[in-house]
Amino acid sequence: MLVSFQRLKAIFLKESLQILRDPSALIIAIILPLMLLFLMGYAISLDSKKIPVGIVVEKESKYTQSLIKAFESSESFQVHHSKDRRIFVKRLQEGTLRAMVVIPANFDKDILKGKPQIQIITDGSEPSIAGYVNKYSQLLWKNWLEYEHLSPSKARIEIQTRYWFNSPLLSSYFLLPGSIAIILTLIGTLLTALVVAREWERGTMEAIMSTSTTILELLLGKLLPYFVLGLISLIICILITLLWFQIPFRGSYLMLFITSAIYLIPSLSLGLLISTLAKNQFVASQMALIVGFLPAMILSGFIFQISSMPQWLQFITNFIPATYFITILQTLFLAGDIYEIILPNSLYMLLIGVVLFTIIFKITKKKLS
Questions:
Q1: Largest CB tally within 10 Å, which of 156, 190, 196, 242?
Q2: Does the pLDDT of residue 135 top 60, yes or no?
Q3: Which residues lie closer than 8 Å to 245 by C-beta, 6 or more apart?
Q4: Are 133 and 122 in contact (CB under 8 A)?
Q5: Which domains does the chain have, with CATH numbers?
Q6: pLDDT band at 146, cuts 50/70/90?
Q7: What is the C-alpha separation between 199 and 283, in angstroms, rounded?
Q8: Rounded to the nearest 10 degrees, what angle do helices 253-278 and 195-202 cross at?
């Protein structure tokens, strides 16, 4: 028989007891997901709201008051107004203000001439916010001209905009599902990276090698407890995401658990590969963070768009399992069971997991023979 279930059960129970006796493993598997989810939900936000903007009104009139109200009615801006632009220039330099809108003294005269103008000055030290303020201010300015019937266009066109899958346009709707992939990466890679390295450090690997346990039984027996632990962390993350943060879920829970189980295969395999190569817990943990966690955080499309990366980095993202899992999670949460997306990405994850496990099997076999 290729695998003895009795020996596999013995290794599984041994590793499970080791997890229960190790507080650090339980902290990483239970406490750390809670901390990361609440950080993602509250501390990290890509929503542009309440951006401090100063409006300089050099000469007040009914038109300037109407324009100020237009800016104040927007949830994107936190408006401050003054007659002295020097106050806002200093605040721009200090970083407490992100933009300044100047309404000139001859604003009413320019309206009579049919050429009203305003000046928009943004803080370019944060390009994304500066670009957002500039574009939104121009849109607000055009809408105000339409509202006051000052637009040269005679045909009034009403545009109705609808946002699919994320109608409130909240960044948490895609950050929190994506953070589940980051958490499973951290749990799977970091915990399993310490498995074999711990055996070598404590000198118990020689005792295991002296038994009749095969390489496959050893690897499966060490991976399965962390596989179960990863699924427990997944359940915790899902409950918090759905019940606490009220993130919508439009897919099936069965598909969520199946794809998560598939993702744990390459994640756990990568950690075990690192553990096999390192033979030292400190080195293994550092390698797990560098090889597993950081690429999943930065290069998977979780925060930064892959299409905006250089071509050589886009090529590297094809070998990062989190790239495919984040796409699956965001699809399941926001769109539903779109099998045209879920099935190919699941296949890629499974392929990477099989390749990594095969490499571990070959390397471990050579070292234990």
A1: 196
A2: yes
A3: 37, 41, 172, 176
A4: yes
A5: 5-44+170-368 (no CATH), 51-147 (3.40.1710.10)
A6: confident
A7: 14
A8: 30
